[in-house]
Amino acid sequence: MARQSISLTEPNDKWLKSQVDSKEYSSKSELINDLVRQARSQQKQIDWIKAKVTTAEQSGFTEETKEQILAKSKSLLNG
Fold first, then answer.
1. 3-class DSSP state of 15
2. Helix or strand run (H / E) with residue 66
3. Under 8 Å CB-to-CB from 25, ≥6 apart: which residues?
């Protein structure tokens, strides 16, 4: 496992210590690794949403009303 040295602001250090003190995590390292995993997961979701938005933007615009779009979507789902 890679070993790193980081500097933290006082409020962040206090928060990390409080999480460890509350027995939520056994160490600051465990907590930081969990935070990084969460950030990576969120980034995957953001990337997926960006890809969907890009695809939608590239497909162009429609003159249909939202009611027409909804009816069309329902008919496609119902076969």
1. helix
2. helix 66-78
3. 19, 31, 34
